[in-house]
């Protein structure tokens, strides 16, 4: 179970619901160390005293607010708590909004809210009310000595608290150069293009299944690391590649409808191959791929190779399932083939 980040209560009008805050996300980035190339010794992150240039031990480090040049007020965790005791212990709901109305760029970090002792009834009440109304609760909460705007959302049986950015932390879109929505212009979307794009979106629409996606670049990087270990090149830096990046092409007129039509055709072909592959694998042997995402697997190998592999699997599968009733057509095919060869040879002799 994930660690407890914070304990407090949800303030819902006059109702207080004791809750526990737990992290709802984790980092899967590779843990890389900094090394000294000369002797492979780790390079640590040292806190340096700017006056003496010497490292400072952790127990000697405190927080301070500079109120005048070289003059500081020292602060510790108790100062942060006593600044506003209630704010540091409460998820204070200030309003409710339609959950779909919150722009996605306001969201920051998700946390799970779990009912604490004697908090189950109030938790269930708030959860069911928000589920029925489809609302999100906007709240203020202090975490790690900083106040956050947060959105409380319903997901399955849980309440999720997602910290948000304040409005002044979001850069305005007015500075962006965006295409106009007007149709018929060079930068606008034409009706035929929208129609074809809508078909592609509908064809690519699936049920939400996040477990089928994964960080395939991390897998590729780990494969490269393992290859360097196996080849004994662990202390050798890879020289820059002689291949240069392809120059960027200038702007040109693109036939969007043709590209969308090709995309739809490719989607249909890939679907048939995926379905045939899955049927063959289930009948012959368990799937060997570790990657659960068929999308990731599709990126790993070219379409031609997948087609060849699928054809081979189909051939093995059809061979293993051939029964007595299906052998007759095969013999007829072989006789037909022999007849064709014979006729071809006869034709050549006649020509000669």
What does this structure look like?
- This protein has about 350 residues and is of the alpha+beta class.
- Among the domains are: about 1-25 and about 75-170, Ku70, Chain: A, Domain 2 (Beta Barrel), CATH 2.40.290; about 190-200 and about 255-315, no CATH class.
- Helix content is about 40%, strand content about 20%.
- It has eight helices and nine strands.
- The protein has helices at about 75-85, 120-135, 190-205, 215-230, 255-285, 295-300, 305-320, 325-350, and strands at about 5-10, 15-25, 65-70, 70-75, 90-100, 105-115, 135-145, 145-155, 160-165.
- The strands form two sheets. The protein has a seven-stranded mixed beta barrel with strand order 1-2-6-9-8-7-5. Strands 3-4 form a two-stranded antiparallel sheet.
- Strand 7 and strand 8 (about 145-155) form a beta hairpin.
- The radius of gyration is 32 Å and the shape is extended.
- About 5% of the residues are buried.
- Mean pLDDT is about 75; it is low at about 285-350.
- InterPro entries: DNA_bd_Ku70/Ku80, Prok_Ku, SPOC-like_C_dom_sf.
